[in-house]
Task: structure prediction
Amino acid sequence: MNRISYLSDLLSSVFARDEQQQQIEQQGSLAELCDALLSQSGEMSGNRLARGLLSRFAAADSEEQLAFFRLLAERFDINAEHAVRAAQRYSKERNAENLAILMSSVEPRRQELLRRLNRVPGATNELVQMRALLLEVCKEYPEMLRIDVDFQHLFRSWFSRGFLVLREIDWHTPANILEKIIAYEAVHEISSWTALRSRLEPDDRRCFAFFHPAMLDEPLIFVEVALTQASPVTVKGILETRRKVVARQDATMAVFYSISNCQKGLAGVSFGNFLIKQVAKELSRQLPGLTTFRTLSPVPGLMRWVNERVEQAVDTSVAPDEAQIRFREALLTAQRISTQESVVLSETDSEQLQYLVAHYMHEEKRKDHLPLDPVARFHLGNGASLDHILPAADVFRKGLSQSAGVMVSYLYDLDKVEDNHEAYANEQAVIMSSEVRALLSKPKWSRKRA
Result:
């Protein structure tokens, strides 16, 4: 064979493979695309396959997407028998070669597939959206949760703190991001651009968000802050657009009144603990006059717990003691208030609600001995302490239905957050002020007369 014919055959072979790959991209099944991507060593051709697979998934209907997840779960899972043999080999001879084989055997092939998908521009956001769909699928098909183990493993690396960028959001931030702040607000709805402006433009308002370099136009989580001179007792006072604005140099307190996770596909990947602490440091740098950092937080699980407790069967064969009677009174008071259109609390109503929330926060735990309330787990885990319980702090319909209008304030004492965090992490300790702890004593409100 002469040199020219050899070169011609070589080029024909290359073009034939390229045509075959294009045919797979255009007409191949999702399984064929996955196989081709995993077998591809070239970066450009691999990226083209990855883009084709992501586009195919995005355009697929729910049945096709479910079939793709089944493919990941079954075809690209680990070989358990191979993993067992590799573990046995390593237990007998612990050298680098056997360790590499063991590590390779216990990593599902779908992890490498997801890594290769993530190489193309824009893929990170698409994979986050893919996981959001997966989480919905898992509700009906729990066997798919093993795929989510891989997503979580990869996302916790890709979205580690070292990659996150803190950006201040103000009224001059690009409109496409401001639109997402409106859409993603999860605690206190932003009903209009005017309402958004009142939260961003005044001298006594701040907003900060974490972004990822691969998702520059997509906030991951954001926090809204009110600069005040005193502890707020209602969220209405914070959200009031015609309030008296506090000059920044006169503010002594920063109140975190809304924290919103933006990406459903990043559930379980924690950013908030980093966000709160970094924002506190940034505000301290900008405004040295700030001395106190606290929250005005919802108690979103309260009424769900109250309703479950009220519905529990009462043992009528045993006469309830005074504490049990008063506890049930407090439960019924919360139920009554949660359904009202307008709220005017008596002194007894307030006492009952404060006692009930203190009990709920301190005594009601999950199987892992952590607080039942998700917001409590978040702030206590960050090293905050439960400082105040505030009846009638949120009398909007959502606040009433979720927590009978009660809000709480967590205190971030920057000198104590590390110790508080350690006590919570190691002992599941609910750190609270003496004011809240006093509420846990035997109920003292006057019994209502029949």
